[in-house]
Amino acid sequence: MKIKNICCIGAGYVGGPTMSVIAQKNPKIKVNVVDINSDKIAAWNSKNLPVYEPGLLKVVKETRGKNLFFSTNVNQHIYEADMIFISVNTPTKTSGEGKGYAADLRYIESCAKQIAKISKNNKIIVEKSTVPVRTSEKIKEILRSNNSSVDFQILSNPEFLAEGTAMRDLEIPDRVLIGGDNTPEGKKAVEALVEIYTSWVPIENILTTNLWSSELSKLTANAFLAQRISSINSLSELCEETGADIEEVSKAIGMDSRIGNSFLKTSVGFGGSCFQKDILNLVYISKSMGLNQVADYWEQILIINKHQRDRFSKKILNCIAKNYLEPKALLLGWAFKKNTNDTRESAAIYVANNLINGGVSIDIYDPKVKESQVHRDLSFINVNYKKSSVNFVDKPFSNISDYNIISIMTEWDEFKDFDWENVYTKIKKPAFIFDGRNILNMNKISKIGFNYFGLGRR
Ligand code: NAD
Ligand code: UGA
Q1: CA of 130 to the centre of ligand 1 (A)
Q2: For residue 302, what are the CA distances in angstroms to 228, 280, 281, 372, 435?
Q3: Residue 2 falls in the annotated catalytic set
Q4: Ligand 1 mutation target, pool 9, 75, 89, 157, most atoms within 8 A of CB
Q5: 274: annotated active-site residue
Q6: CA-to-CA separations, 375 to 56, 223, 372, 378, 405, in angstroms, rounded
Q7: Which residue has the higher pLDDT, 424 or 270?
């Protein structure tokens, strides 16, 4: 089956970049990305894309208006499509059964209902969103019980891109995973999606499995990645107590080819929209099957992550108290990692909140995050948050030597490249910089280590 018309529901961090690349690599396929959020769609149709991702604008400019379109006309594009990607958000439930743990599948379910209602011809439905194992079963049920005159084939095709390197990850993926039913129709659907990817991905990097293995592999991949970060972060505390150096330990263990050196950088804690939610989901699934030890094992990753953020905040508060400093700090970076404007679950939010609660007034700078987002993030985790607790600055470096406390929260290159030594060798007052692991006394150091830089996949 040759796919001619794709609809992707959800124009977010995954839908937008993924479909841009699919459109670029398959110029004969018409790709419509739809969303209920009209501001987002307007931004996708402008030069100020709603997602900041290096290299994205170039691909969008190349394809938009040719075979890539962004629209709020969800029904029309569902109707026209022969393949529909569901790429909507699957956040942690905030109420009802599984509150605080289970994935909220209401957006997925509402897409399935809408697809069933609108469809008049056979369609392949692709789960792009990260979902609990066996969600495809639910989608099938909704589709078939609401529309019995159309054949729907369901595929699972989880996305493994990391923000900040999304375009590279999409261009040269480690693997593309496609789960489908082991029936003649199911196999044909898998082949149709494989054909789209083979326009640029070598066939040996395309892995086909059954539906449930594919769904569970996505959750597991994120859990394994987060587990490595919590492992190294837990050891960073032990290093501080014993005099061992976490950078040296990380290097020493990472050189073992069985362990590998990726994702072994200590940090203030991992952020991002997915690690926490996917682990909570794994914990929920395990608990609901009575596998309490399995659930506890994975939950510990999140306990350590919170501990690391709290520990880091305490270091700053103690530093202020011990050195009788004015309770004021500059936080450099708000995004959860460099090269993205995404702030979801960023460690900066939690550290800032801890500092505000500790009576510290804070200035914040991030090259890509807007001030309104900072206020939204803080009021989301703290009902008593007042806008006046933080001050958003545009040019932090012009008066940087006025600060006694500077904390680098995101490893943006401009923070690494700044000439720190030149500033601080000139000043006499005590000043401290937190680089994601160490507190460095600015007056004593000859070189800032910035061991925190170079997080991520590549
Ligand atoms: P997002 O919040 O950026 O985008 C989701 C979009 O879906 C939103 O714009 C929302 O308005 C839209 N939407 C929701 N319901 C809709 C409906 N019924 N009709 C039309 N539009 C609708 O989310 P995201 O970061 O792109 O993540 C999407 C999924 O991909 C999640 O399941 C996530 O776990 C997974 N994922 C995310 C990443 C990442 O880096 N962000 C990577 C891999 C996988
Ligand atoms: C992560 C995975 O890497 C992707 O494969 C996956 O598709 C995605 O989640 C998802 O499902 O959403 P992402 O969260 O965008 O991608 O970014 P990462 O590079 O994984 O970084 C996540 C967090 O871990 C960041 O806060 C980063 O600073 C932190 N990190 C990363 C560390 O603290 N130490 C490291 O060594 C690496």
Answers
A1: 9
A2: 12, 8, 12, 28, 22
A3: no
A4: 89
A5: yes
A6: 27, 29, 5, 5, 21
A7: 270
